[in-house]
Each structure stands twice: as C-alpha cells, then as structure tokens.
Amino acid sequence: MTFQIGDKVIYPNHGLGIVERIEDKTILGTTCGFYHLRIAANDTTVLVPLANVDGVGLRRAIDDGEVERLFKLLGDGKIDAQQNWKGRFKDNSEKMRTGSIYDVADVLKSLTLLSKSKSLSFREKRMLDRARFLIITEVSEVSRDKSVSVEGKLDQALNKCLSTRTRNIEKAKATKVAVKPVNGNGTIRRARAS
Fold first, then answer.
1. Closest CA to 114 of 68, 71, 149, 165
2. Residue 151 binned pLDDT confidence (cut-offs 50, 70, 90)
3. Residue ranges of the alpha helices (H) in the chain?
4. Model pTM greater than 0.70?
C-alpha cells in the first residue's frame, strides 16, 4: 500500500497520523524510503519504512460509509467473551496490533462487557481506554464531528450491543429444547425448557 503527502493514515496503537513527507534516509550504510507521519493525538513524528508498511499495519483512515458499518458492528450484540485472562489478553493484544478498526471494535466490545461484571486488570483497563480513544479519534476526524459527540454515539452503540446480547441470551435460554427420557423405556420426550 502506498500513500501520498497529506494522506490520513492509521498507525496501529498510535492512532491517526498525517503523511507529512516521504524521504530517503541512509542508516548504517543502507538507504531506504520512509513515511514521515505526524501523529495527531500527541503531535509526535514517527518514521515508517516504506518496505514495512504492511508489516506494521499502516492503513488509510476509514471513510464515511465505513463509519456507519463500524457503528452497526459496535451495536450488533455479538461479543467474544473468552473467560481465560491469559488467552483473552493475548487475543486482544493481537487484535490491537492489526490496526483494523473492526478488530479494535471487537476488543472494545469484549472489554466493555467484562468491565460490567468485574474490575479489569490494569493492563486490560489501559487496553479498553486505548481502544475507545482509537475509535473516537478516527471517527471524529473522518466524520469531522467533535470527539464528545462521537463518544456519545459510541456509548449508545455499546449499550445497544450489551442489551441485544442480553436479550439474545435470554431468548436462547427460553427456547432451548431439553431432551428427557420417559419411564426408562428408551423413548424420549422433547419439552421446552422453562
């Protein structure tokens, strides 16, 4: 993937940046091209080797159509709720490193759900905050909307997601079919669980 000066790009775990320059630098006798990114959140400069763009997950910012898709995903009620802390943290860390806003949204949904039932560890709390920040800043920039407004929409979508998930679980429990043997003669009876 190639970018031009002025392009808005997303650098995984750092957020939105703008390509300010594209230049060649010689490091230890090897000359390579670099994107000079200005990270919007903290006004820092990051150099990304042109040859390593895919490896670090640098991508273009989403467009208006993808913002709508993102909020649908955030409110869909589908949450990966892995219980094992170690596995959950590893999976979430990998998703955050991909740079995909949809992977970041999955992390945000799962950690938001978890935070409603128990206190998050320091590392998971930091990851939750980071996921919120990354989504809010990208959507705010793309939609040219204030961060406070985007945060409100994000909270609405997450609340919808949690309530949809709860409804779906309740519905599944109510319609679950139980199989019970009758009189020990080998016949079975299907009955709706109450």
1. 165
2. very high
3. 53-56, 64-74, 85-98, 101-117, 122-143, 147-175
4. yes
Strand partners, 48: 35
Tokens of 61: 């910012």
Per-residue pLDDT tens digits for 57-90: 899 999 888 999 999 999 988 888 777 888 889 9
Q: Residue 42: pLDDT band by 50, 70, 90 thresholds?
A: confident
Range of the domain at 19: 8-60
Whether 117 and 100 map to the same domain: the answer is yes
Find all residues with CB under 8 Å of 1, minimum gap 6, and list them: 53, 54, 58, 59, 60
Domains: count for the chain: 2
Cα dihedral sign, 63-37-13-146: negative
- Give me the CATH number covering residue 138: 1.20.58.1290
Distance of CA 103 to the CA centre of its chain: 4
